[in-house]
Each structure stands twice: as structure tokens, then as C-alpha cells.
């Protein structure tokens, strides 16, 4: 009997499963709109995310995205407007993992809040957009997927309607996000005007051959004659991606949004959404804009621009985090610093070590998903207990909640890059890759900023374990969902140590495939 042949559209399985789960959650909520079953909604959301994870792993094992004859090769959909390859599957897995952890943590955190069904449906819809962003292979599909991820995110930040901080953060996030989207789509229009195409590989062909087609008449025209148009379009794309990844100079929305949002949503935005923004940056710039050919036309090297952004982003993020007294804002600025680390991957494109540097950025985003989600989930647990938001409010929590505090310690030291935790290995590969690529200033900035980050991460560990509590809190509840999410993130943060070899191999393979 011949094996069952799946349609090509099945390659979008992780995104389709997330979208279908969102519709199921909508249906379940409509059956009991006034008495939502929190366990059923959270369980369905987490189950759908885990199912999407399983589908993604299945496709990776089957060899989707691995070049023939060893694998099935990349699968193009809708005339290659979407492409499912190793890069897409790698980041679909990151999105699914974070979504599952956020759903489990939200079971307790959202207890007593209204709009339960809407909350979980919006999480799944945002995750669907992020998974689609990973497969987008055209500037149009990139923009559509970006908006599918962004619009639910705006609502999620403002979901606590009785909390003024949440509503204010949601409004600011929406207004700045709308501005960033306008900048991004304007950049797309300029690139279309210069090249006459929107598909990423066709944009690269037009730039490399210095010929294209007029988008209105279809007649051939010289791309080099539109160097100014193309250059401005690329700059605007960089600005739009800088906003989505919370990179300097468009980083200022992140502390406000993360502080006002529910803590699980802050984890979702700073982990899954950031990873989705970076996968768009990786695919768009590596595929559409060959470094040498683009520099020859527009007169500047975009990889150098990302090197400058990497140094500025990690430095400003870490120095701002070091002076914060609010734990949530500290983690927000820390997230900006980690965006700077991931930008090293783009800074290394076009060098002899580009596969290693880009793969190291993938590794870092993968490990970061666990340790950062776990850190924000601990903040959610503290908010559940009614603990304040400053470092001093966390004093002595280690004596009342030792298990969760041990997990927090692992998250903090892994974020700082302390060996032998996962964050150390991903930063080590970034450092060695930057050295091999000749990015000595960037490598030095990575080391200095990692050392600085140890200061403010250690402040939180010191407060939890060694400082005397300001008040007698008595016994603390142990909510099942929040503890389960924290422990799962902690286990994965530690479990990546023996499994870092396969993670590194998959990341470098994904980088090599997109660079080929």
C-alpha cells in the first residue's frame, strides 16, 4: 500500500492548528458566555499549542526544508508567497512552546478577570500570525502576517479593562504600532517601485541583475536608476523591524507595554513576538538584499547598520535595566538588551562566518524563549500573591516559595550568561561567531554588556534569597498553573544543556539553508 500523500498546504500545519484551536476556543466560550470554564479554555489553548509543536517536530523529523536528496526540501505555497523550510519550522516551534507556557500560566493569573474566551482566542490568533511570519516569503505576506500578530497583541496588552495601567499601555502600544506599520508598508511600496516585485528571491534577482520590471507598465527598467528609492525603502524596513523587535531607537514602547500588560502577555510579547520579528528580519534581509549587490546600488552596507544597532541596543538596554527599581521594567529593558544580542546574527551576514553567527542568533532566541518566559511567569506569580513591583517587595520570597525561587535563580543566571546554563552557550556561540566574522567591537560589547547584566540579575536573586522581607507575608498560595509553567520553563532551561548539540546543529542547518 502506498503511503498517504499530504497536500502541500499541510506544511503550514503548526499555524493551521493554532488557528483551528482559536476557533474552537471561540466556540467553547460562546456555549457558556457568562460562566466560562477556565480550565477548559486554558487546557484547550495549551493542548492546541502542544499539538502545533508536535506537528512542527514531525515535519522537521520528516526532512521538510532539508535539501534533497537527504530531505524533502522546502515547500512553497501560493506561488512561493509562503515557504516552509528549516527556518520556518524552527521558529514555529518557539512560538508553540511559548504559547503553551503562557496558556498554562494564565489559568491562575486570569482567575476572576472577565473576557476569558476572548483572552485565549487572542493569544492563539497572535500565535498564528507569528507562526505565519516565520514562513512569509513575500513583502506582502510578511506585512499581513505581521498585522495578524500585532492586532491581537494590542488588545491583549489592554485586556485588564479595570486596570488603568493596562489600558494606557495598550493605547500607547497601538498608536506606536500603527505608526511603525505605516513606516514598514511605506518601505515596502518604495522597494516595489524600485524593483517591480515583492517576492523576496525575486527582489534579490532584480538587485543582483540590476534590472527589473516597471510595476505599472511591465517594461524592463534599471534598478540602479532607482538607488535612492531602494535605499530609503531598506531604511524604512529596518525601522519597522526595529520596532517589532524592540531595538534601538524604536525600543521605547516595550517598557510601557510590558509593565502595563498582564505578566503572561509580557512574557508572550518579549519571547514569541520578538522571535517572530527576528525571523522576519532574517528572512527578508538575507534573502531579498544580497549584501554586496545591495551595497553597490544603494551605497551602504545594511549588515554594518545592524552591527551598529546591535551595539547600541544591547548597551542602552542593559544600562537602562541596571538603574531600574521596578522588576517588570528591569525585565523589559533586559529584553531590549537581548534584542541587541540577536542582532549580531544580521551583523555577521556577508562574512566568512555568516552561518555560525546567524545560527548562534537562532540558538539564543530559542534558549531565550524559556528563560525569559519563566522570568516573567515568576513576576506573574508574585502579582498573583499581591507582592509589589519593586526589588524590595521581592525580599525574602525564597523562604516562602523556595521551589519557584530556585527556578527564578536559574532564569536570572541563564539570562546573564553564567556557565553552564543555556544562556551561556548561546552567548558563547555568538561571541565566537562575531570574532570569526571580524566583528571585534560587537564581540567586546557582548562581553561587557553580559557582565553588566549579571549585576542587575543578581540584585533580584539577592533580594529573593538574602534580604529581609519588608512585611510578614504569612503563607503563600501555590497556584497549580503558574507553578507548572515556571517549573516547565526551568526544566527546559536546564535540559537544553545536554541537548544543546542537536539545538546548535538544527540552528546552523536552518541558517545554512537560508544563506544558500
TrEMBL record:
The keyword rRNA-binding does not apply. It is found in: Membrane. Keywords: Membrane, Transmembrane, Transmembrane helix. This is NADH-quinone oxidoreductase subunit N. It comes from the Archaea. The lineage of its organism: Archaea, Methanobacteriati, Methanobacteriota, Stenosarchaea group, Halobacteria. NCBIfam families: NDH_I_N. The chain crosses the membrane at residues 6-28, 40-66, 86-107, 119-136, 142-161, 173-194, 229-253, 265-290, 302-323, 330-350, 356-382, 403-422, 428-457, 480-500. Pfam families: Proton_antipo_M. Residues 136-452 form the NADH:quinone oxidoreductase/Mrp antiporter transmembrane domain. Coiled coil: none annotated. It comes from Halovivax cerinus. The keyword Metal-binding does not apply. It is a multi-pass membrane protein. GO terms for cellular component: membrane. Its main location: membrane.
